[in-house]
Design brief:
This protein has helices at residues 21-25, 43-51, 68-79, 94-104, 113-121, 185-203, 210-231, 237-257, 261-273, 277-282, 285-292, 297-307, 313-323, 337-349, 359-363, and strands at 10-13, 30-34, 55-59, 87-92, 105-106, 129-130, 133-137, 149-154, 159-164, 172-175. The protein has 364 residues and is of the alpha/beta class. The protein folds into two domains: 10-178, Rossmann fold; 187-363, Dehydroquinate synthase-like - alpha domain (Dehydroquinate synthase-like, alpha domain, Up-down Bundle). The protein has a six-stranded parallel β-sheet, with helices on both faces. Helix 2 (43-51) links the parallel strand 2 (30-34) and strand 3 (55-59). Helix 6 (185-203) runs antiparallel to helix 7 and helix 9 crosses helix 14 (337-349). It is globular, with a radius of gyration of 20 Å.
């Protein structure tokens, strides 16, 4: 059987690599999309010094989990601006990069509702205008810098939409671990566990292939050795670099497989229980692993490469996550057994849940 792996993103990695940004921009007019604290941390000023007059717009009010109500005004202001930027630079975590991905695909009249209505109806959307994107992550976890996906939330309707188009791949992923040194412990942990989830979800996945497996196994092993050490040494640039590379490998893995059951569970935990995304998709990993083992001999072999002997793997995975201070039971988050069973059953029917290798067997 032929295997197909595709990732068009140019990746630039290493401490100090932010200095290559002017060369990447090449004198074009750029709009920076970033988070509110970026200016206080001096990050906006660094971009301003690097790009000078090429930086024509700064959007620095991106909030976690971008919501359609906030995005609508931002989108229409961006596409209606009298001086149009030629490209976007996203500086931040998943929310900043997701916001930039929403901004990069323009409708004919610059209205946002056409895009949202297509996402809500599951219809194909073809942008009439497009801005290339340089993704500069300041966290090590989302993998969004090397994937075409963006999550858009509709809190009022208790829904989330997945934006993924051929046009929403970033052009460049620029990973500089020095930008991650200011991350607090909580965000470091959440983003690291998000990366672990991406890697494991790429393994117990119906879309897995040998190359995605190679990235995923390496990411799991790197995270197991690096994340606990990093949590005890947040200002260690070498450890930050190792986690950034692990998160990149995980992103490369799920850029071709998409995520699976743990992420499907996570969306409801975030919408209904307010759980941060990294925690929401990591706490059910041992439960999902236990369901995955024995479903497919080839997947078992890859899981064993990543986690060691499978008879002990769920317990080892639970101990790893709990050792970082994160509970691995629904009850730890106030969810009853009955609600948990309903949530898992519902998650298996979702788009991501159906990527899980045991989904069709569970339904049967």
């Amino acid at each position: 059987m032929a295997n197909d792996f595709f990732n068009p993103v140019r990746s630039i990695y290493g401490a100090g690599s932010l200095a290559s940004l002017p060369e990447l921009v090449e004198g074009r007019k750029a709009a920076l999309v970033t988070f509110p604290e970026a200016r206080a941390l001096g990050l906006v000023q660094r971009i301003e010094r690097l790009l000078g007059p090429s930086l024509v717009q700064v959007i620095d009010d991106v909030r976690p989990n971008p919501d359609v109500r906030e995005l609508r005004a931002l989108y229409e202001s961006f596409w209606g601006a009298p001086e149009q930027a030629d490209l976007l630079i996203a500086l931040g975590g998943g929310s900043a990069i997701d916001t930039a991905k929403a901004l990069m695909v323009g409708t004919e009249d610059g209205g946002f509702d056409e895009l949202v209505e297509a996402l809500a109806a599951g219809k194909h959307f073809t942008p009439t205008r497009l801005k290339p994107l340089i993704a500069v992550p300041t966290t090590a976890g989302t993998g969004s810098e090397v994937t075409p996906w963006a999550t858009i939330w509709d809190q009022a309707a208790q829904k989330k939409y997945s934006l993924h188009l051929p046009q929403t791949w970033p052009s460049v992923a620029l990973l500089d671990p020095e930008l991650m040194l200011s991350l607090p412990a909580s965000v470091t942990l959440q983003s690291g566990l998000d990366a672990l989830s991406h890697a494991l979800e790429a393994i117990w996945n119906v879309n897995a292939n040998p190359l995605s497996d190679t990235f995923a196994v390496a990411a799991v092993q790197d995270i197991f050795t690096t994340l606990p050490a990093l949590m005890g040494a947040l200002h260690n640039v070498q450890l930050r670099g190792r986690m950034a590379l692990a998160a990149l490998k995980a992103g490369m893995a799920f850029s071709n497989t998409r995520t699976a059951l743990a992420h499907s569970i996570s969306y409801e935990m975030t919408l209904r229980h307010g759980l941060p995304h990294g925690i929401a998709c990591a706490f059910p990993l041992p439960l999902v692993l236990a369901r995955a083992i024995g479903r497919d001999a080839q997947r078992d072999a890859v899981l064993a490469q990543a986690l060691g002997p499978l008879t002990e793997a769920p317990g080892r995975l639970s101990a790893f996550i709990e050792g970082l201070g994160v509970g691995t039971r629904f009850a730890d988050y106030g969810v009853s057994d009955t609600e948990a069973e309903r949530m898992v059953a519902h998650a298996l029917t979702g788009t991501r849940g159906r990527n899980f290798i045991g989904a069709h067997l569970t339904e049967a």
